[in-house]
Design goal:
- The chain has helices at residues 3-37, 43-58, 96-105, 160-206, 255-274, 279-293, 369-372, 384-393, 399-414, and strands spanning 60-68, 78-85, 109-111, 132-139, 142-152, 217-224, 232-238, 244-251, 300-308, 313-319, 325-327, 333-335, 339-340, 354-357, 363-367, 423-430.
- It is an alpha+beta fold and 432 residues long.
- The chain folds into two domains: 14-183, 2-Layer Sandwich (Beta-Lactamase), CATH 3.30.450; 197-430, Phosphatase 2c, domain 1.
- Strands 7, 8, 9, 10, 13 and 14 form a six-stranded mixed beta sheet that branches.
- The longest helix is centred in the middle third of the chain and has 47 residues, at 160-206.
């Protein structure tokens, strides 16, 4: 057989051998990568491993994985950016134009001459970027991230084989990265739920565990937060001379921020109770303290009363709260609205105080707007009139009985409509 026939066959075998060698190397890269990231749930560690293996396989200087937000209103917002470099040089910034291109095309992109690439005409690239290879990370047909490597070592450009291998790496890694991210989100959610549950426990302990036991009076209260924690607050604090402070407040907002302001309000009011001042003075001082310790968007509505059970007098100051309902034994109704502005809006505010006498059979009901604004499926509120009529009709019941009647009626009115606001009721009844 002549040399002219043998030479092409040898060249073909050499090419095939080279192709098989590269395939084995690629399989080795993919197998090593799968073992390295398959058992981890740390997304940062996984992404850094992917980038390091990619840099080694591509012979590139720097790599980055950019995870994107898949919300419809923000399709290209970067959530996570993990970069690894094989040198100590300046880290490149992932170009937003690349992310937009990848969002539209969802296919690999090789750029070996960024400045003169017609697909990105007008885009300003960093001077140190000479070449780049960008591939999509796709899960269930959606772009979840982008894997990019920069600057082929040796000055050459990225090849078709580089693009194919990096695309396979991205395809095999996308689901693992997504699973790790979802796992971390789940763990954060569980941790947050535990913290919220602890906050709810602490908040519940801040509210009165026992109600005042006062001769000739029945005093009770109940709070049902709309969320796990809430911003409504009620309290009973013993004062000198057998008097009791009785208050009910509603802080702005809901959830954890409101619960923190609620705790601050309770501490502020209790400190004023210890000073044995009048209702007016207590509210004025509490307003100054809350104004100085809260932001301009935070405020508190509060009813603060001091009950003298010996002389059956209730001195009160209402700081912008729902006017409590005082139902007389004969059925007459009085609203307790004397006071002033909500707490925390302005530092220098003057408040007024009023004193009412409580006769046998009189019932005082304090409540938050979560009761009257309880909404049914027809978007109809429970309302003040319904509440006043309910209290009037049940005035001969016990204090706890009246409270249960109010809470039950507001809940039944809402029906299947979810509770939108905290619901709090305090009942003070003079029984003799």
């Amino acid at each position: 057989m002549g040399s002219g026939v043998f030479a092409p066959s040898l060249q073909t075998l050499q090419q095939e051998n080279s192709r098989l060698k590269r395939a084995v190397e690629e399989l080795s890269v993919l197998n090593d990568l799968a073992r390295a990231i398959g058992s981890s749930f740390n997304s940062q560690e996984i992404m850094q491993t992917i980038i390091r293996r990619s840099l080694r396989a591509m012979g590139a200087e720097q790599g980055v994985i950019t995870l994107v937000d898949r919300k419809e209103d923000q399709p290209m917002v970067t959530l996570v950016r993990t970069m690894v470099s094989s040198h100590d040089k300046h880290q490149f910034h992932f170009n937003q134009a690349l992310l937009g291109w990848m969002q539209l095309n969802k296919k690999p992109l090789t750029i070996n001459d960024p400045t003169n690439d017609d697909r990105f005409r007008g885009i300003r690239w960093e001077e140190q970027i000479h070449s780049l290879l960008c591939v999509p990370m796709i899960v269930k047909s959606e772009l979840t991230g982008v894997l990019t490597v920069y600057n082929k070592k040796g000055g050459g450009g990225f090849t078709d084989d580089d693009q194919r291998l990096l695309a396979i790496i991205a395809a095999q890694s996308a689901q693992i990265v997504e699973n790790a991210r979802l796992y971390e989100e789940q763990q954060e959610y569980i941790k947050m739920q535990e913290q919220v549950a602890l906050a709810a426990k602490i908040q519940a302990e801040l509210l009165p565990r026992e109600f005042p036991k006062i001769a000739n009076y029945e005093i009770t209260g109940k709070n049902i937060p709309a969320q796990v924690v809430g911003g409504d607050y009620f309290d009973f604090v013993a004062m000198d001379g057998g008097r009791w402070s009785i208050c009910l407040g509603d802080v702005s907002g809901k959830g954890l921020p409101a619960s923190l302001l609620m705790a601050n309000t309770q501490a502020t009011l209790r400190s004023q109770t210890l000073l044995a001042t009048t209702a007016k003075q207590s509210i004025e001082r509490a307003n100054i303290l809350l104004y100085r310790s809260t932001g301009p968007d935070k405020f508190v509505t509060l009813f603060y009363g001091i009950l003298d059970p010996v002389h059956h007098r209730l001195s009160y100051c209402n700081a912008g709260h729902e006017n409590p309902i005082l139902v007389r034994s004969a059925g007459g109704i009085q609203r307790l609205g004397t006071g002033g502005l909500v707490l925390g809006i302005m530092e220098s505010v003057s408040y007024e105080e009023e004193t009412v006498l409580l006769e046998p059979g009189d019932v005082l009901v304090l409540y938050s707007d979560g009761i009257t604004e309880s909404m049914n499926t027809s978007q109809e509120q429970f309302g003040d009139d319904r509440l006043m009529s309910l209290v009037k009709d049940s005035r001969t019941d016990s204090g706890p009985g009246i409270l249960d009647t109010v809470m039950k009626a507001a809940k039944e009115h809402a029906g299947k409509e979810p509770q939108a606001d905290d619901m709090t009721v305090v009942v003070v009844k003079r029984i003799s």
